[in-house]
């Protein structure tokens, strides 16, 4: 190759955008304000007008979140709302042939097709363990009202410093028994540091029902590197969820972080940071249920499109100054539970 050709090749290579290496940490500039150094919570609370009607001590809750990566809002959801939501779930199970709601089945015999529509899942499977009802809020007005409850929205709007957008939900009857993990590895928004979750107790939690466990303070630990995909997991990752769980338990132990078990009451809400290490404990009494409603959230700037239609303008439902997008693939199933 001549000198001229080599120079042309070098110039072309320099001008060609190079693929960015996979992220192994959140980019500091994109972090929510509360995750940055010297975040002034007292100053924020003074100017956050919406927080004036928050039924808890907002500054105290924000400081606890900053230190521990979670907060609990006691008696946040009216029991009548919780009961109504579960009646709708029972209707879905009993008359499953009427509904197209997606169901995640984590059982070996369904490994080839783990996601099916409710109408295609036998009742005895649908009503048993290892089942997650996906995005039931699409079907349910009450599901949306609980997901975007004023207390949840007020706190998360403060955390993000931006309008709240609900991304997805999971409903289940029995404990998940899921290994230790952090949500950002699986649930990804357009700005991955703008992610939080709510776990809403639909009944009192018993110690033997496979309760949720978590490691306070783990949201500040170094992220696990899945290898080819960085801190996000996919089918192309070098390492798997078991490696992820083992890493988290090891670094939590090394950091002196103690595992805690969540035993909360019906209507209580756990809100947690995307990086909080948590999981589902073993079910020691299979007769016990752990009725749960889990919702994930991002911010307006970080989640602008429905994950099923990333190039389309979403249809928005707005409650308490926050948004949730209608499912673009199942418009006929929207709000069928009034």
TrEMBL record:
InterPro entries: Phytyl_CoA_dOase-like (IPR008775). GO terms for molecular function: 2-oxoglutarate-dependent dioxygenase activity; iron ion binding. The keyword Disulfide bond does not apply. The keyword tRNA-binding does not apply. Keywords: Dioxygenase, Oxidoreductase. This is Phytanoyl-CoA dioxygenase. Its cofactor is Fe(2+). It comes from the Bacteria. SUPFAM superfamilies: Clavaminate synthase-like.
């Amino acid at each position: 190759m001549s000198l001229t050709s080599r120079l042309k090749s070098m110039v072309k290579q320099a001008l060609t955008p190079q693929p960015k290496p996979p992220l192994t940490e959140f980019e500091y500039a994109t972090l929510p304000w509360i995750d940055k150094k010297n975040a002034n919570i007292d100053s924020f609370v003074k100017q956050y007008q919406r927080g004036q009607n928050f039924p808890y001590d907002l500054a105290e809750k924000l400081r606890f979140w900053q230190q521990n990566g979670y907060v609990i809002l006691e008696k946040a959801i009216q029991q009548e709302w919780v009961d109504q939501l579960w009646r709708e779930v029972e209707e879905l199970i009993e008359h499953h042939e009427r509904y197209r709601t997606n169901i995640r089945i984590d059982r070996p015999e369904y490994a080839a097709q783990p996601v099916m529509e409710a109408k295609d899942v036998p009742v005895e499977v649908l009503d048993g363990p290892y089942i997650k009802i996906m995005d039931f809020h699409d079907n349910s007005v009450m599901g949306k009202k609980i997901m975007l409850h004023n207390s949840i929205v007020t706190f998360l709007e403060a955390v993000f410093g931006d309008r709240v957008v609900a991304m997805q939900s999971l409903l289940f009857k029995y404990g998940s028994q899921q290994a230790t993990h952090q949500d950002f590895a699986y649930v990804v928004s357009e700005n991955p540091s703008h992610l939080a979750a709510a776990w809403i107790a639909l009944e009192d939690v018993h110690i033997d029902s496979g309760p949720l466990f978590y490691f306070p303070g783990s949201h500040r630990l170094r992220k696990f590197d899945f290898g080819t995909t960085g801190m996000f997991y996919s089918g192309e990752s070098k390492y798997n969820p078991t490696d992820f769980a083992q890493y988290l338990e090891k670094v939590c132990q090394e950091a002196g972080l103690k595992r805690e078990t969540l035993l909360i009451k019906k209507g209580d809400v756990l809100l947690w940071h995307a990086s909080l290490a948590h999981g589902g404990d073993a079910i020691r009494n299979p007769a016990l249920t752990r009725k749960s409603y889990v919702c994930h959230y991002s911010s307006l700037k970080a989640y602008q499109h429905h994950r099923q239609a990333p190039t389309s303008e979403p249809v928005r439902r707005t409650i308490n100054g926050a948004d949730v997008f209608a499912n673009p693939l199942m418009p006929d199933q929207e709000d069928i539970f009034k």
